[in-house]
Amino acid sequence: MDRFDWGDENLVSGESLVNYQAGVAVYDGNDKTPFEHGTLTLTTHRILWKDFKDRNTLLSLPLALVVFIEEQPSGFAKSAKIIVHLQAAPTNKSPGPVTHSPNQFVRFSFRESGEKEFFRDFNEQLQHRKWEQVIPSSTPAGQGARHRAGIMGIERTIQQRNKTTDKNITQAFQDLSKLMEKAKDMVSISKSIATKIKEKQGDITEDETVKFKAYLLSMGIPDPVTRETHGTGDKYYTELARQLSNVLEGPLKECGGIMTLTDVYCRVNRARGMELLSPEDLLNACEMFEILRLPVRLKTFDSGVKVLQLQTHDEEQVIHTTTDMVEKSGSVTAEELSREAGVSVILAKERLLLTEKVGGVCRDESVEGLRFYPNLFLTKAN
């Protein structure tokens, strides 16, 4: 841990983002640290870890200090990990969370999966070593490496490079602007057609109107809330929360009233098209649901898993249903309940843990994994 320093999210020249994974804990060797739940970001130059609750806590680890990495697969009640072996801390290192550590490695624990893709991208960046690459300066033809261009030659080279860069950027933004305009036009057309069809009577049934409108609007969220249209701060998050609640209420009803925040993030950004949300903006908006008394709520399980659920979601009914499923099957794992109930494995496990918490089921931990059984202590006592 003494290789980490307090960093920031500003990228240096030539640095770019590669991968991002939520729900990651940091270990100093085999020892736990206070950095238990955050987001891990891989760039071409660094590893960044940002705390989920304290947004100002951000750790930075230069890839130049990494010797090699290895995978540690998930096991019995243990999440998969990436072990990062490190060089000694440099003498001129910036301040960090730890001044001295006896360990020569750290571990990143992936509690919401995603470790395989992250490990693959991590290895690629270590092989490419982009943090060592320096943009070479142009050398006039016929001159050897020992000949240096004069100041005027250097200035001309820089001006030419800047001119080329500006031209490429301008062209790229023109193409991007055209694409965004097309996307906005398509959404506007879909809204217009849906409105006209809804107003049309006689020829088209109400069911067909609703269905066709759904097809049209599935192309994207019309008029997504952005910082450009709604400002910054609480006003932006308030309007974003209202829109998210409106958009997610239907999908939540379809999937049983509850959805992981990871699934919500993917679904919302897929619908927003070009106006993508950052994880921080999504989380801040979701935290406004209860304050605004919206029909959707943000809930954090004891394990740290964050979900969105309808305010009308009945946990007692979920516990009762889960208890019945376990009794009928004799015993279940999270994977088996996931298939039977039609929910993700993460939500299935949380349902079993919630039911266990109130005494509805009992667990059995063995080399085969975690399995839940009916609570005979409770039923036999009756």
From TrEMBL:
GO cellular component: ESCRT II complex; late endosome membrane
GO biological process: protein transport to vacuole involved in ubiquitin-dependent protein catabolic process via the multivesicular body sorting pathway
Keywords, comma-separated and alphabetical: Coiled coil, Cytoplasm, Endosome, Protein transport, Transport
Keyword Transport among record annotations: yes
Predominant cellular place of this UniProt entry's protein: cytoplasm
Subcellular compartments: Cytoplasm; Endosome
Residues covered by the GLUE N-terminal domain: 1-138
Molecular functions per Gene Ontology: phosphatidylinositol-3-phosphate binding; ubiquitin binding
The organism's place on the tree of life at top rank: Eukaryota
Subunit structure as annotated in this protein's UniProt entry: Component of the endosomal sorting complex required for transport II (ESCRT-II).
Protein role: Component of the ESCRT-II complex (endosomal sorting complex required for transport II), which is required for multivesicular body (MVB) formation and sorting of endosomal cargo proteins into MVBs.
Membership in a protein family: Belongs to the VPS36 family.
This protein's name: Vacuolar protein-sorting-associated protein 36
